[in-house]
Amino acid sequence: MLKPYLDMSREVSEALNSGKPVVALESTIISHGMPYPQNVETALRVEEAVREAGAVPATIAIIGGRLKAGLSPEEIEYFGKKGRDIAKASRRDLAMLLARGQDGATTVTTTMMIAHMAGIRFFATGGIGGVHRGAEISMDISADLEELAQTPVMVVCAGAKSILDLGLTLEYLETKGVPVLGFGTEELPAFYCRESGFSVDYRVDSPRELAQLFKTHEALGLTGGILVTNPIPAEYAMPKGDIDRAIEQALKECTQQGVKGKETTPFLLARVAQLTGGESLASNIQLVLNNARLAAQTALAYGALEGEKLPQ
Ligand code: PSU
Ligand code: MN
Questions:
Q1: Is the peptide bond before 266 cis (omega within 30 degrees of 0)?
Q2: Which of 24, 72, 154, 200 could disulfide-pair with 182, CB 3.0 to 4.6 Å?
Q3: What pTM does this model have?
């Protein structure tokens, strides 16, 4: 239905037409998730990592009321430079931004929607939104979880930041029928840290296994997504104590300042980054690169399965 509004870059459309592996990337992480100019440098490096692994990157965004799959370096620079002046676009914002011909940075939710519309199965990001701490009062639950419940895209992330209630996030995903996989681990990673104390549903050890799972998911006609959690490489992980302290402080300020709704996550992300200095930003960049490589390898493995028969 959204197809008349979709523009694919030449590279992305040629790749999809010829069955080459493609990886979707989001733009809220550029405009709202990192400071300029590291956001632009990272977005370009992530695209490069996807290419080096043999796949085509499709960074997704909304520009002038058009849905875009595949941005030019100039467009990425534009999203990075405008930063938080670009609207953060979730599902509820799509029709309005398109009707008004405006720009929007796509979250995990809208990136999944647009990727699926374009025919892209694999998507790499940093962290997903989830059930916020204190959600039993605030009811702040990210639309990302509802999108994972209904859109068949495999999302590779580094778990979720503990600005969220990780236990409730897992409960929500279970209710919605979304499998949560750990890549090389049985423990849910918590973005900057490899440990969270929570278990994933299944441990998976190869891109091929991920590709086979997604193929089976599609063959069954299942509608929701699959969440792959890929721990940050140990050499870039941060001490849990440092991160926990920064998160507690950021959450306190968020409540004191009455920050609400779509501003909550960008506020917490920016504050945690400030409080932990450059170290958390460096970790953030590395984990996104790591996820982009895994998503690209999985897209390649999926392509290699094409000829293989599934059980009847
Ligand atoms: N978590 C991060 N980095 C991010 C986001 C979340 O560690 O950049 C972004 C993603 O785009 C995600 C969105 O989809 O925030 C979730 O926002 P909300 O919690 O308002 O649904
Ligand atoms: Mn929210």
A1: no
A2: 200
A3: 0.97
Check if 162 has its Cβ closer than 6 Å to any atom of ligand 1. Answer: no
> Tens of pLDDT along 87-121?
999 999 999 999 999 999 999 999 999 999 999 99
**Nearest residue to 45 via CA among 288, 295, 297, 303:** 288
> Which atom from ligand 1 is nearest to the alpha carbon of 140?
19
Q: Can you tell me whether residue 296 is helix, strand or coil? A: helix
Helices of type H across 32-185: 38-52, 73-82, 94-100, 108-118, 135-138, 143-150, 166-175
Tokens of 231: 């721990």
Pairing mode, if any, of strands 6-8 and 66-69?
parallel
| 185: nearest Cα among 221, 232, 132 | 232
As a dihedral over the C-alpha atoms of residue 103, residue 84, residue 244, residue 283, rounded to 10 degrees, the angle is 70
Q: Which domains does the chain have, with CATH numbers?
A: 3-305 (3.40.1790.10)
Q: Among all residues, which ones are annotated catalytic?
A: 26, 161
Name the residue of 42, 62, 128 whose CB sits within 8 Å of the most ligand 1 atoms, as the mutation to test its pocket: 128
Ligand 1 neighbourhood includes 108 CB (under 6 angstroms): yes
- Summarised one tens digit per residue, pLDDT across range 168-181 is 999 999 999 999 99
Cβ atoms of 7 and 75 closer than 8 Å = no
The 3 state secondary structure assigned to 120-146 is CCEEECCCCCCEECCHHHHCCECHHHH
Distance 312 CA to ligand 1 centre (A): 40
With a 6 Å cutoff on the Cβ, whether 262 touches ligand 1 is yes
